[in-house]
Amino acid sequence: MSTATGKMALALASAALLFLYGPTGATAQTEGDTINLGAAVSLTGKYSVNGKNTKDGYDLAIKRLNEMGGVKVGGKSYKLKIVYYDDESTPARGAQLAERLINQDGVKFLLGAYSSGLTKAIAPITEKYKVPHVEGNGAARELFTEGYKYLFGVLSTSDYYLRDAVNMAAEVAKENGRDPKSMKIAMAFENDPFSLDVRAGILEAAKKHGMKVLVDDKLPPEINDMAATLTKVKAVKPDLLLVSGHEKGATLLVRQTSEMKIDVPIVATTHCDSAKIAETMGKQAEGILCASQWDRTLAYKDKWFGSADDYAKTFQKEFNYPAPYQAAESTASVLVFADAFQRAGSLDPAKVRDAIAKTDVMTFYGPIKFDETGKNTKKPMVLYQVQGGDYKVVFPSKWAETKIKYPRKLPTN
Fold this sequence. Notes:
Blueprint: H1 3-21, E1 30-31, E2 34-41, H2 48-67, E3 71-73, E4 76-86, H3 91-103, E5 110-111, H4 116-128, E6 133-135, E7 151-153, H5 163-175, E8 184-189, H6 193-209, E9 212-218, H7 227-236, E10 240-244, H8 246-259, E11 266-269, H9 277-280, E12 289-292, E13 301-302, E14 306-307, H10 308-319, H11 325-344, H12 349-357, E15 360-363, E16 366-369, E17 382-387, E18 390-395
Parallel strand pairs: 2-4, 5-6, 6-7, 8-9, 8-10, 10-11, 11-12
Antiparallel strand pairs: 1-2, 3-4, 12-17, 13-14, 15-16, 17-18
Helix pairs in contact: 2-11, 3-4, 5-6, 11-12
């Protein structure tokens, strides 16, 4: 661990202690003219990078809403505040903290944790206590097949993350005079609900196009070496290499495909923006495709932040790093609550829940409208490619900034 990284970890741990011991049993649903929301986020542990993205997204939404006068509920204006705890990237801890927020802190409205695994652990708690739970970072579709009435996700479910990489490959094949059925796939996944759902979406798309899967591996638990998988890839020469392993998986894929000279025409992963592969990995990252929930170039606008690009500029100014989609969807989760509070005209959790269920709003992040399972059915995913050290939207074609560079040329050092 570098000195800078060590200092950051220490700062986050200190912040976590403040979050842990700051609130008391006196905290309630409201404090005077302030509505309390609660959130367990990953300030430490393996999801700490995206945990920070999540918290930053929440904090920016709260700051903007409060600057605009807060939210008006039944004729009275309220400011918003978030009670935080560090879930340590552990599902059991997340569930424990959700209980604490509800039972000890009196919080009646919960924002989501980072990752499908933590969301899966917390959802039964919020359902049990009938606490509205709006999340932007738990994408596993199994979250929305359990019949939960209080869980709502603003993001596209995880089976859609790399599905479009397969659809795009079929399109590219036709453009190059090939039958999509001749395209061959190699893939590797972290053994978590999110990544396994990404895998299911790929398999469904591959079946639709008649493509064959030649390598279907799991990444090691620590996501520190995928040489065994890449050795197979080198031997079978697939047309697509698809990986889902959060930031560590994205970074590992870029580094080891370069080191082992793995030459595959289409290479796609999840989480490459939050892993900052374009910013930190130079030529090694060129040509890598990445699934994204959101991009600053998309033509979405709202009354809170303006355009997607306006949001990105505001975020960069506030936190001094580019806005990843994990932050954007977290901000959007808070906006859903703000919109629902006003339409409900009440802070009664049941009435707020019903208002959330009827959400139909455009945000800088995209359109949000929930189906009966709590999924946002209106917002599409996008694919971008690292080109010239930047992320460029290349699919779907109607939102593309530029054309995909195909085949990906193995970068030379």
